[in-house]
C-alpha cells in the first residue's frame, strides 16, 4: 500500500456525542470530581502509550502495554459505575446499543487471540529449522530449507477472523455516538466516561488490527469534538498521529508486516534461505553460525512476546467481562420503570464496552 494508492483514508468525526451539561446547569462537586479524576487518568495512560521512537511502533511489547492500558481503563469505569450507583435513566435503546457493541468487541478479541495463536504455531517450524541447522549436512540443510519455506508460507497466510475485524471496527466507530441521557446528571457523567473508554478501546484495537492484517487494513483516523474539552483529548490525538503515521509509513515501504519482532525473524530467515538452499561455502562457516544465532534469538523473542501478549489479552477479557456484569447488575437493581428484558439478558456473554 502506498499513499498514492490510498489518497482518501476514512475518518469519522464523532460530532457532539456527549455534551455533558445543558446550558445553565452544573454538576455537583462530587460528580465533577469523579469525572475529572477519570478523564485525567485516561489522559495519563494515553500519554504513556505515545512511543519514544519509531522502533517501538508497532512491537509486541507496545501492544502488551496498550492492552494493559485498556485493562486499567475498563477497571476504572467499573469503579465509576459503582460511585454513580444508582443510575436510573437507562432506557432499552441504550441497552440494545451497548449489548450490540459488546458482541462486536468480543469478536475482535477472539480474532486477536486467534491471530496470536496462529503466529505462535510458526514457532514450531522455526524450532525444527534450528534443530536441523545444528549440523551443516546437505540432508539437514534441505530439511531446514523446506521448513523455512513452510514458515514463510504460514506467516503470510490470511486469517479470516482478523480480516473480519475491518467491518466490525468500522461499525464500532460509527456507533460511538450513543443515545443521550437528558435528565440525569449521573447518567451524563457515566455516558461521557464511557465515551472515553470507547474511544481508547476502538483506537487501540484499530491499530492492532492494522498491524495484524498488513496493508489490507486501512487505518481510520478518529476525530473528537474540540468543543467538549475532554481532558484526555490532546494525549489521544498525539498517540493516534504518532502511531498511525508510522504504521502507514512502514507499509508504504512495501512491508507485509509492521510487527518488529516478526520482521526481525523474517530478516534472519531471508538471510539463511540461500545458504540452506545452495549449501554453506567454506568461507561462510562463521557467517552461517552468526545467522543461525540471530534466528534463534529472534525466534525466542517473538515467541516470548506472543505469549505475554496472549496472557494480557486473556486478562483484558476477564476484566471487561466482570465490568459488564457489574453494570448489568446495577441496571437491574436501579431501574424502576424499565427492566432489562430477561430474553435480552439471558444467554448473553457478559462483556464490558
From TrEMBL:
Predominant place of localization: membrane
InterPro entries with a match to the protein in the record: ROH1-like
Membrane topology term: Single-pass membrane protein
Compartments where found: Membrane
Recorded GO CC terms: membrane
Domain of life: Eukaryota
Alphabetical keyword list: Membrane, Transmembrane, Transmembrane helix
Family that this chain belongs to: Belongs to the ROH1 family.
Record-given protein name: Protein ROH1-like
Amino acid at each position: 500500500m502506498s499513499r498514492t494508492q490510498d489518497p482518501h483514508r476514512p475518518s469519522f468525526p464523532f460530532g457532539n456525542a456527549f455534551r455533558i451539561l445543558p446550558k445553565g446547569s452544573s454538576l455537583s462537586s462530587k460528580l465533577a470530581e469523579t469525572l475529572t479524576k477519570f478523564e485525567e487518568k485516561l489522559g495519563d495512560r494515553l500519554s504513556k502509550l505515545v512511543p519514544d521512537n519509531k522502533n517501538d511502533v508497532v512491537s509486541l511489547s507496545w501492544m502488551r502495554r496498550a492492552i494493559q492500558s485498556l485493562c486499567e481503563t475498563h477497571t476504572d469505569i467499573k469503579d465509576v459505575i459503582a460511585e454513580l450507583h444508582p443510575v436510573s435513566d437507562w432506557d432499552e435503546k441504550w441497552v440494545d446499543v451497548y449489548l450490540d457493541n459488546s458482541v462486536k468487541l468480543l469478536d475482535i478479541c477472539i480474532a486477536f487471540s486467534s491471530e496470536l495463536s496462529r503466529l505462535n504455531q510458526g514457532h514450531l517450524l522455526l524450532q525444527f529449522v534450528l534443530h536441523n541447522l545444528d549440523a551443516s549436512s546437505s540432508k539437514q540443510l534441505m530439511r531446514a530449507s523446506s521448513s523455512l519455506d513452510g514458515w514463510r508460507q504460514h506467516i503470510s497466510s490470511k486469517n479470516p477472523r482478523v480480516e473480519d475485524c475491518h467491518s466490525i471496527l468500522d461499525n464500532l466507530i460509527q456507533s460511538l455516538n450513543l443515545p443521550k441521557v437528558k435528565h440525569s446528571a449521573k447518567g451524563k457523567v457515566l455516558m461521557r466516561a464511557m465515551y472515553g473508554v470507547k474511544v481508547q478501546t476502538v483506537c487501540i484495537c484499530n491499530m492492532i488490527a492494522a498491524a495484524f492484517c498488513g496493508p489490507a487494513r486501512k487505518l481510520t483516523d478518529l476525530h473528537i469534538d474540540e468543543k467538549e474539552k475532554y481532558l484526555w483529548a490532546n494525549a489521544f490525538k498525539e498517540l493516534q498521529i504518532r502511531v498511525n503515521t508510522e504504521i502507514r509509513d512502514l507499509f508504504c515501504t512495501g512491508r507485509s508486516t509492521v510487527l518488529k519482532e516478526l520482521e526481525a525473524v523474517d530478516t534472519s530467515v531471508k538471510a539463511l534461505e540461500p545458504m540452506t538452499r545452495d549449501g554453506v561455502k567454506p568461507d561462510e562457516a562463521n557467517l552461517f553460525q552468526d545467522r543461525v544465532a540471530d534466528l534463534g534469538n529472534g525466534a525466542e523473542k517473538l515467541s516470548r512476546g506472543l505469549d505475554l501478549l496472549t496472557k494480557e489479552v486473556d486478562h483484558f477479557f476477564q476484566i471487561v467481562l466482570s465490568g459488564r456484569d457489574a453494570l448489568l447488575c446495577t441496571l437491574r437493581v436501579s431501574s424502576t420503570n424499565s427492566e432489562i428484558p430477561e430474553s435480552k439478558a439471558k444467554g448473553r456473554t457478559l462483556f464490558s464496552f
